[in-house]
Amino acid sequence: MSPMKDTTLRNAEQLGRSIRLKRLEKDLSQIALAAQLGVERKWVIHLEAGNPKAELGLVLKALDALNLQASLSDEDRTAPGKGDRHTPSRLDEVFRQLQRPRRK
């Protein structure tokens, strides 16, 4: 099976399919993935089916277990005719705030 390529996901079903494909690519059973995550196989089944209510922390843990990386992007980053120049968004500011050391 060929390695997965970067994919833009638009919904929970697409995320679930991607997780399933990567799990199969790594030759992991649903039971084995569930054991790594500390959940029941049923949770993995629901995740792969596109459960939109899956706990975010567990979804991120599943991505990590499968060596998948999630990223966010602002689809409206460039204005027409501006090339690839990045226009900062509110999301950029949130990430900057999260990266600053907290004061005690």
List the helices and strands and how they pair.
Elements: H1 12-25, H2 30-37, H3 41-48, H4 56-65, H5 90-99
Helix pairs in contact: 2-3
Commentary on this structure:
By secondary structure, this protein is mainly alpha-helical. It has a domain at 12-65: 434 Repressor (Amino-terminal Domain) (Orthogonal Bundle). The chain has helices at 12-25, 30-37, 41-48, 56-65, 90-99. Helix 2 (30-37) crosses helix 3 (41-48). The longest helix has 14 residues, at 12-25.
- Computed Rg: 17 Å
CATH class annotation of one domain: Mainly Alpha
Helix content estimate: 40-55%
Instruction: List the total number of helices.
Output: 5
Beta-strand percentage? under 5%
Spell the H/E element sequence. Answer: HHHHH
- The shape is globular
The total strand number stands at 0
Main sheet record: none
Category from helices, strands and their pairing: mainly alpha
Q: In CATH, what is the homologous superfamily of one domain?
A: lambda repressor-like DNA-binding domains
Low-confidence stretches: none
CATH-defined fold name of one domain? 434 Repressor (Amino-terminal Domain)
Judging by the overall fold, what is the CATH architecture of one domain? Answer: Orthogonal Bundle
The rounded distance between the terminal residues' Cα atoms is 50 Å
The overall average pLDDT, rounded, is: 82
Summarize the structure.
The chain is mainly α and 104 residues long. It has five helices and no strands.
